[in-house]
């Protein structure tokens, strides 16, 4: 069960990018850690992670991971557009 107090104190872009750096692959273990350690759903995590990777604070805190996250998102968007167009 998630800790309500943890959800009231949002994670910083640096914290989100650090978690992503330590757990770069989408695995069942990572999803369990997101729910248990961060106290949020996987969907919420990926929304917050995308915002962190685009933010000035996130880029300053971890430019490499922020770039990787942005590139992954751009690649998925291009693939989605290609599927829709065909």
Radius of gyration equals: 14 Å
- Count, helices: 6
**Average pLDDT:** 91
Uncertain segments are: 1-6
User: Strand fraction band?
Assistant: under 5%
**Gross geometry:** globular
Distance between the termini: 43 Å
Quaternary: single chain
Largest sheet: none
Helix content: over 70%
Structural class: mainly alpha
- Helix and strand succession? HHHHHH
Say how many strands there are: 0
Structure description:
The protein is built from 6 helices and no strands. The N terminus is likely disordered. It has 86 residues and is mainly α. The longest helix has 23 residues. Helix 2 crosses helix 4.
Gist of the model:
The chain has 86 residues and is mainly alpha-helical. The chain contains six helices and no strands.
Layout of helices and strands, plus pairs?
Elements: H1 4-8, H2 13-22, H3 28-38, H4 42-54, H5 56-61, H6 63-85
Helix pairs in contact: 2-4, 4-6
Q: Which properties best describe this structure?
A:
79% helix, 6 helices, mainly alpha
């Amino acid at each position: 069960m998630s800790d309500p107090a943890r959800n009231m104190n949002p994670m910083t872009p640096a914290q989100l990018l650090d978690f992503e750096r330590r757990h770069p692959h989408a695995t069942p273990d990572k999803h369990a850690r997101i729910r248990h350690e961060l106290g949020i759903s996987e969907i919420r995590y990926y929304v917050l992670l995308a915002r962190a990777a685009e933010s000035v604070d996130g880029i300053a805190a971890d430019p490499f991971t922020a770039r990787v996250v942005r590139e992954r998102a751009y690649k998925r968007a291009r693939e989605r557009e290609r599927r829709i167009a065909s």
